[in-house]
Amino acid sequence: MGETTLIGLFLIFAAVVGLSDLRDRRIPNWLVIVGLATALFGRAWFGGVGALGSGVLGMLISAAMVLPIYRFRGMAAGDVKAIGAAGAFVGWPFAPLATIFVLVAGGACALVGLAICRFKGLGLSEAMKKRMPYGVAIALGLGCFSWWQLQSAPGKGFWVFAV
Predict the structure, then answer these.
(1) φ/ψ (deg, to 5) at 155
(2) Neighbour count for residue 8 (Cβ, 10 Å)
(3) pLDDT per residue over 74-91, tens digit each?
(4) Cis geometry, peptide bond prior to residue 133 (ω within 30 degrees of 0)
(5) pTM of the entire structure?
(6) Which sign, positive or negative, has the C-alpha torsion 9, 26, 120, 122?
(7) Measured between alpha carbons, how far is 136 from 35 in angstroms, rounded to an integer?
(8) How far apart are CA 151 and CA 59, in angstroms?
(9) Whole-angstrom Cα distance, residue 68 to residue 55?
């Protein structure tokens, strides 16, 4: 029961991040704070202290993985914080894999955006000036990660109680 609840909250968090960034072109701090608090509290409640530590480590690893992209202006600070909160949900050792899913989704979204700009007749320099709402890539990547996790480990448990 608890595992299903936390997975549902994780997917709701991912969807709201994507919708918020798509609509407002930003991910508000309150949303990241609520997601992070939910992740850490849920991990502690359902998995104990070990799962809480796993969530903190997952948050740090996920955020660290995307900091270079932020540094070179490939994403905004809200994106980094949201990815860190997602890492807290999935914890160690799944955070790096979930972050890779997000990065692959980001690359796919960028390619689709470039194709749309090309279809509209915009040149590459004009297309590069467009800001992609990375929250959409976060939502898609986390959704794909969850789907993959459910498909690859039936009956073997899920990331929620990984310590």
Answers:
(1) 80, 0
(2) 10
(3) 899 999 999 999 999 999
(4) no
(5) 0.89
(6) negative
(7) 16
(8) 24
(9) 22
